[in-house]
Amino acid sequence: MQIATVGGGCFWCTEAVFQEVKGVEKVVSGYSGGNVPGRPTYREVCSGLTGHAEVIQVTFDANVITYEDILVIFMTTHDPTTLNQQGADRGTQYRSVIYYHDDNQKEIAEIVVKELTPYYEDPIVTEISEAVTFYEAEKEHQDYYKNNQAQGYCSFVITPKLMKLRKLHADKLKSA
Question: How far is Cα of residue 146 from the mean position of the Cα atoms in its chain?
């Protein structure tokens, strides 16, 4: 098993996307990249004052799906061209970021960003940084979409991302 840590705006969205991907064993929502000591809370991270990004940590079977495929799915299911913003969510906590866990992941991340750049009208602003401490988010933020599909944010923001995932990456999804 390998680990990928990425942030593409609200972690509820990215968590829901990767829970549908074949080879993904576990997805945990959390926080990373902050500059204050101690375990941050959701409220603190949402303030934008801790420097943390909302991220997910994906545990995946590299014999089923590659790290490169994980990153391509990540980069094509959120907007990597908006700095510190995804849709109406604004602030550094919603930045597009890839936290690499070793030099190989760093190299793959740089290649994926370079290869996808021509497909976007605006420059890709996704941060590529060395992985630092990952803090698991509170229980109510885990499996958020699965537990709250009728909630407005889920219907209007997450469901369209899942539709995009299913359209662009049907061959990479778990069977229904």
Answer: 17
Q: Which residues are catalytic?
A: 10
**What angle, 0 to 180 degrees and rounded to 10, lies between the N-to-C axes of helices 67-76 and 159-168?**
130
What structural domains does the chain harbor?
2-172 (3.30.1060.10)
Spell 113-139 as b/e; 16+ CB within 10 A means b. Answer: beebeeeeeeebbbbbeebeebbebee
Q: Output the tens digit of pLDDT for each of the chain's 176 residues.
A: 999 999 999 999 999 999 999 999 999 999 999 998 889 999 999 999 999 999 999 999 999 999 999 999 999 999 999 999 888 889 999 999 999 999 999 999 999 999 999 999 999 999 999 999 999 999 999 999 999 999 999 999 999 999 999 999 999 999 75
Q: 24-32 and 134-136 as β-strands: parallel, antiparallel, unpaired?
A: antiparallel
d(CA 81, CA 117): 10
Amino acid in position 148:
N
